[in-house]
From TrEMBL:
Source organism superkingdom: Eukaryota
Subunit architecture: Component of the nuclear pore complex (NPC).
Coiled-coil boundaries: none
Gene Ontology CC: one annotated term: nuclear membrane
Keywords annotated in UniProt: Membrane, mRNA transport, Nuclear pore complex, Nucleus, Protein transport, Translocation, Transport
Membrane spanning residue stretches: none
Subcellular localization, as worded in the UniProt entry: Nucleus, Nuclear pore complex
Protein known as: Nuclear pore complex protein Nup85
Length: 719
């Protein structure tokens, strides 16, 4: 499928049908089906029958396109500089959430160091700086453009927009009520450079630059943009002009431009306004000298320099009609006109009146409705936040998401929920998170954006977390505690779930991990993950599987597997939900210890373990017959009186219960496991084994009675 952007149309290659033949395709008994990937935002498209056998009858054989599967994506996966940009800008997203959505104690800690308005301003500036860095990187060495996913001017657009938003909406407490002109002009000169430095270099290299048609338009633009140094250079070049009047006027204008008051250098707003009024009053001298220039000297044969200077003087005096005419002649767009009006016509204009001025100028010089960036900028000037976000989404969903986040934090938009249960901010953040899903490796960032979007976003984050593919690393058998057995990715998933408060999701992930390692016969790790998941039934199944290893691979392998279980499992306090399963863990470990002692030759220790399992009611009744058979084998394996008389009596009573109940239709409860150890593998064989056990125990009991001490003694045992 063609790699189209979010708003472009896409075509299937090779095509399923030719252009204009859709009706024929559907009437042939076929239709298009779509399956969406659970891991990312890709989709699979393919042709399928409609299920109507009449419509597909006699339509010919199946073509290659009928069996083709088309993989498509709604977005290009973020890569190269784009991925770096996403990761870097995410560093500012978290602190915004800490400030606006965290518990009061967290927010108070942040605000203890800085006021809310200043804190938001700083975070907005962080976004601006990240955009600036990516823009500079994109304009890097020649040849890098081939490695970029997005062109440099795209990042310049993000840079300009975030910079303007911070200036207008989050200026900080100390800048809220100051005249807006100079900050806006600084923004304009930073992001929309005019006049061109290349054109200026060309004119400066000319011996008589005023003879060039671009000289006076260039000088006028420099004056409008407040480029004092450039203006001084160009006016100084006029000192070589043959007309004395022009040389005199150029020197006076240059001096006035260099003496212009600056708001940023003024102690107060009032001081700036007074100094500006006085400065404009000094243009009367320039006006008088302009009026004294004779008509025949006002044109030097290349241009009407007098008219040009007259227009420049009118602009600097703040004459609105002159300003409007000059902007129109130079073809300036709406944003230049708004900002230059704030500089030259009404330098006292504040943020609260900028909206009205912008609306008036847009009637004369409309924004380019086909350019989403221009719509975003004009909407920000007009304080039309909903329209700004809608257009920003067309520029870049990243821009819309982070603007919306900052707008709600700065109370520029209200956190009202619609019918879907989402606020405007959450809509754009979720849309951005969906874009991030195009690259599954960005899941760490994706889930944090989603979890900032209420319950709807958190549920979506759960689905992302559950679909992160991981494989538990299987190490050498160990009985280390919980943390040491987790694979790095699984540990990170658990940590992320904990940080985001997604406890149920964390349990489900651990449950999956337990199933993975159980299939690899790593029962110790599986038990640990089951406990982390609080999946007690899963823990029971895992222990049962490990116990079955005894029958399939023998006691040595069983003991090895049991030693992998972490000791911490034995310290868990039982309750109504887990007691039965924890008892199964205890039995599995005691039974492993029994065989371990037996194989090491410690028959007394083995006998003690076996009796402990009966007396403490640890052994399940399904294992009683197996334990009795083990006891008989224990008696046959050495010369030590391994059981006392009362202990042998206990074993006989248990044997009697097993035998009697097995013969009374309860064989399914007692005999299946013992049957696995017999040659016949059935209940009769198991009962026959129990009869042998009975004989061995009776003989042993008789020997104990003859010994007379009731204690364990080393006497010859004969059977």
């Amino acid at each position: 499928m063609n790699n189209a952007s979010r708003h472009d149309q896409a075509a299937l290659l090779p095509p399923l049908f030719k252009l204009g033949q859709a009706d024929g395709f559907f009437s042939s008994g076929r239709t298009m089906s779509v399956d969406f990937s659970p891991r990312d935002n890709s989709m699979a498209l393919y042709a399928t029958p409609t299920g109507d056998p009449q419509s597909s009858r006699g339509k010919g054989s199946v073509t290659a396109s009928d069996t083709s599967i088309y993989i498509a994506r709604a977005d290009r996966p973020p890569a190269h500089e784009r991925r770096l940009f996403i990761v870097e800008t995410f560093r500012a997203f978290g602190p915004v959430q800490d400030l606006t959505s965290s518990p009061p104690e967290v927010a108070e800690k942040i605000l203890a160091e800085v006021e809310p308005a200043e804190a938001l301003k700083k975070l907005a500036i962080d976004y601006v700086n990240f955009c600036a860095e990516c823009t500079a990187y994109s304009y890097g060495p020649k040849g890098r453009e081939g490695l970029l996913q997005y062109p440099a001017d795209h990042y310049e657009s993000l840079y300009a927009t975030m910079d303007l938003f911070q200036l207008l909406y989050l200026p900080g407490a100390n800048w809220q009520d100051v005249p807006i002109g100079e900050p806006l002009l600084e923004w304009l000169n930073k992001h929309y450079i005019d006049p061109s430095p290349i054109g200026g270099d060309h004119l400066c290299n000319l011996e008589r630059p005023w003879e060039d048609d671009e000289y006076w338009p260039y000088l006028t633009r420099a004056v409008l943009r407040g480029l004092t140094e450039t203006c001084t250079i160009f006016l100084d070049r006029l000192q070589s002009h043959p007309l004395f009047a022009l040389r005199e006027l150029a020197a006076l204008l240059s001096r006035l431009l260099n003496e212009r008051p600056r708001m940023l250098k003024s102690a107060t707003d009032k001081e700036f306004i007074i100094n500006t009024r006085r400065w404009k009053h000094r243009f009367q001298e320039l006006r008088i000298k302009l009026g004294r220039v004779a008509e025949q000297d006002r044109d030097d044969g290349f241009d009407n320099w007098w008219e040009r200077l007259n227009e420049i003087t009118g602009v600097l005096e703040g004459r609105q009609q002159v300003m409007k005419r000059v902007c129109s002649n130079l073809g300036l767009d709406w944003k230049e006109r708004v900002i230059l009006y704030c500089i030259h016509v009404n330098p006292r204009l504040h943020r609260d009146t900028l909206q009205t001025l912008t609306a008036q100028i847009l009637e004369e010089a409309p924004c380019n409705a086909s350019d989403p960036l221009d719509v975003v900028l004009s909407s920000l000037f007009l304080v039309e936040t909903t329209e700004a976000l809608s257009a920003a989404a067309r520029v870049d969903i990243w821009l819309a998401a982070h603007l919306a986040d900052l707008m709600e934090a700065g109370q520029a938009i209200r956190p009202e929920r619609d019918d879907s249960g989402l606020t405007l901010r959450e809509h754009y953040l979720i849309a951005y998170a969906e874009y991030l899903r195009a690259n599954p490796e960005l899941w760490r960032i994706t889930v944090k954006y989603l979890c900032a979007c209420g319950e709807v976003g958190k549920r979506m984050a759960d689905e992302v977390l559950l679909r992160v593919p991981f494989k538990v690393e299987v190490h050498e058998p160990t009985n280390e505690d919980d943390e040491s057995v987790q694979s790095p990715l699984l540990r990170e998933l658990n940590k992320t779930c904990f940080e985001l408060g997604r406890e149920e999701t964390r349990r489900m992930i651990c449950k999956v991990a337990a199933q993975q390692v159980m299939q690899q016969r790593q029962y110790g790790m599986a038990a640990t993950y089951s406990v982390l998941a609080e999946d007690w039934e899963g823990l029971g199944r895992n222990i049962d599987c490990m116990l079955m290893e005894y029958f399939e691979r023998g006691p040595e392998e069983y003991v090895r597997l049991a030693k992998q279980i972490a000791p911490s499992l034995l310290k868990i306090e039982p309750d109504a939900t887990n007691a039965i399963f924890l008892r199964r863990v205890h039995f599995a470990l005691w039974y492993a210890d029994f065989h371990d002692q037996r194989m090491k030759g410690d028959l007394a220790g083995a006998a003690s373990d076996l009796l402990h399992m009966f007396r403490r009611d640890i052994a399940p009744i399904s294992w009683w017959a197996v334990l009795l058979s083990d006891a008989a084998e224990l008696l046959q394996s050495g010369t030590t009186m391994t059981f006392q008389t009362n202990e042998a009596s206990l074993l006989l009573r248990i044997l009697s219960e097993v035998t009697n109940r097995s013969e009374q239709d309860a064989a399914d409860d007692y005999l299946p496991l013992l049957a696995k150890t017999t040659q016949g593998g059935d209940y009769p064989s198991a009962l026959q084994r129990l009869q042998i056990v009975r004989l061995i125990l009776h003989k042993y009991y008789a020997k104990c009675s003859l010994a007379g001490t009731g204690k364990r003694t080393a006497v010859p045992m004969m059977y």
